[in-house]
């Protein structure tokens, strides 16, 4: 009887019910789409950022992240790479050497006796061209010139090397493809590290700060130049699934247990980026909470109006001996029936919207610059949280906001109500 009365009461005033359903459905759809948009967009940003440079996981010598030192290295990195290849979920890996240096440029065509000028400090990264291309698609960011290739500098200290410089660094040096560079630094054995290079390409990540200080040489060249034969400072590990990164980090860490190595996810070595993402995510969750709160106020107002309009009905029920608890349960059940209907309708609408956004995305015009990285398209995703979080919010909201009006109806005085209404 309770369910039958509640069901009939929901559809007795169709306009009022429709107003409530629209309010609750709107709250569900906005919440669902916001969650899908948040998860999809943030996931795309994180994958774009990590795939383009850092990787989702990094392996270093013990303590390297806390104190990046030329002497903290990964010995026999190829054996480590072979072990990584055996881990399910690892797509590829890329070894790197990092060092600081001073660069000085001599424009092409000025002759062998010309003076090197326009010096600048730079961060030198030694990369394996093949592995780096497989991991990050390095060549896609070369805006002028060509990709690094093996050269005589990989095996001869006296040979002229090939170098790719960041776009902003090239501007600072007033250099272009074909110009000569002199690199001055210190090797791991305490000796000097200096070599002449020719600029083979100009690289752009979209991050002006990074491009202002970055240059790249081959890994073999860097190992010879900095006296790091067979050693690297970092191995970037790539995966296609952001959701398994934490578990994969633990698995790789356990695999490297006998080695003196640290294994960290992007949340650790890209801490500033991670904190920025978490701050934005918190702001969006606050926005979702406000949406749910506004919908709750609308539902409360509608149910309160419903109770006031039905005072005579409740008076008759009390006069016939209906217990207050029955009235409370009936009104709460009515609100939950409307909540369930709103969830069903909202799920259909949200699925349609999210399917569109997940397939076509939304083109940003102008593009969004996030932490120096430019994003031109945002894509939503569909996951269980898009449905169960808004559904719980709607049903809990319907139950909660219906209790005060239900208690008011339950304490209706039959004699007084029937005389005044």
Q: How does this structure look, described?
A:
The chain is built from 14 helices and 14 strands. It has about 425 residues and is α+β, with helices and mostly antiparallel strands. The protein folds into 2 domains: about 200 residues, no CATH class; about 180 residues, no CATH class. The longest helix has about 40 residues. It starts with a helix and ends with a helix.
Can you lay out the helices and strands and say which pair or pack?
Blueprint: H1 2-10, H2 14-54, E1 57-61, E2 74-75, H3 77-85, E3 92-106, E4 117-127, H4 129-136, E5 142-145, E6 161-166, H5 167-173, E7 180-186, E8 192-203, H6 208-211, E9 214-218, H7 219-225, E10 231-232, E11 234-238, H8 245-255, E12 261-265, H9 266-269, H10 271-309, H11 311-319, H12 324-360, E13 362-370, E14 373-378, H13 385-410, H14 414-420
Parallel strand pairs: 4-9, 6-8
Antiparallel strand pairs: 1-11, 1-12, 2-10, 3-4, 3-7, 3-11, 5-8, 6-9, 7-8, 13-14
Helix pairs in contact: 1-12, 2-10, 2-12, 2-13, 10-13, 11-14, 12-13
Offer a few descriptive terms.
alpha+beta; six-stranded mixed β-barrel; two-stranded antiparallel ribbon; 14 helices; elongated
Oligomer: single chain
Tell me the total number of β-strands.
Answer: 14
Helical amount: 40-55%
- The proportion of residues in beta strands is 15-25%
Order of helices and strands: HHEEHEEHEEHEEHEHEEHEHHHHEEHH
Domain count: 2
Tell me the structural class: alpha+beta
- Give the overall silhouette: elongated
Radius of gyration: 32 Å
The parts where pLDDT drops under 50 for at least 5 residues are: none
Describe the largest sheet. Answer: 6 strands, mixed, barrel
Strand order of the largest sheet: 3-4-9-6-8-7
């Amino acid at each position: 009887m309770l369910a039958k009365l509640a069901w009939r009461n929901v559809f007795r005033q169709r306009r009022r019910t429709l107003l409530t359903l629209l309010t609750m459905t709107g709250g569900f759809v906005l919440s669902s789409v916001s969650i899908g948009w948040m998860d999809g967009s943030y996931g795309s940003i994180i994958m774009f950022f990590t795939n383009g440079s850092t990787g989702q996981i990094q392996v270093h010598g013990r303590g390297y992240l806390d104190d990046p030192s030329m002497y903290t290295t990964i010995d026999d990195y190829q054996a480590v790479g072979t072990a990584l290849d055996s881990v399910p979920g690892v797509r590829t890996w890329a070894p790197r050497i990092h060092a600081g240096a001073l660069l000085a440029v001599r424009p092409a065509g000025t002759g062998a006796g010309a003076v090197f000028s326009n010096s600048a400090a730079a961060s030198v990264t030694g990369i394996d061209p093949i592995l780096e291309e497989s991991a990050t698609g390095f060549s896609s960011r070369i805006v002028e010139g060509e990709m690094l290739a093996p050269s005589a500098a990989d095996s001869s200290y006296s040979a002229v090397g090939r170098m790719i410089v960041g776009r902003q660094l090239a501007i600072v040096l007033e250099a272009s493809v074909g110009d000569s560079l002199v690199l001055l630094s210190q090797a791991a054995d305490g000796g000097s590290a200096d070599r002449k290079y020719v600029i083979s390409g100009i690289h752009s990540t979209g991050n002006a700060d990074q491009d202002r200080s970055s240059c790249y040489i081959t890994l073999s060249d860097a190992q010879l130049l900095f006296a790091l034969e067979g050693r690297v400072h970092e191995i970037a590990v790539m995966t296609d699934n952001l959701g398994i990164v934490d578990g994969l980090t633990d698995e790789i860490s356990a695999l490297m247990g006998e080695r003196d190595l640290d294994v960290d996810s992007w949340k650790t070595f890209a801490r500033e980026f991670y904190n920025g993402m978490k701050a934005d995510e918190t702001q969006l969750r606050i926005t979702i909470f406000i949406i749910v709160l506004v919908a709750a106020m609308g539902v409360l107002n509608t149910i309160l109006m419903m109770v006031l309009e039905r005072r005579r009905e409740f008076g008759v029920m009390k006069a016939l001996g209906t217990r207050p608890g029955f009235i409370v349960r009936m009104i709460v059940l009515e609100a939950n029936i409307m909540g369930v209907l709103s969830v069903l309708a909202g799920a259909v609408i949200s699925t349609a919207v999210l399917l569109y956004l997940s397939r076509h995305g939304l083109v940003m015009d102008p593009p969004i610059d996030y932490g120096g990285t430019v994003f031109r398209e945002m894509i939503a995703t569909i996951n269980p949280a898009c449905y169960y979080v808004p559904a719980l919010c709607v049903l809990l909201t319907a139950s909660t906001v219906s209790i005060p009006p239900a208690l008011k109806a339950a304490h209706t005085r039959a004699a007084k109500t029937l005389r005044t209404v």
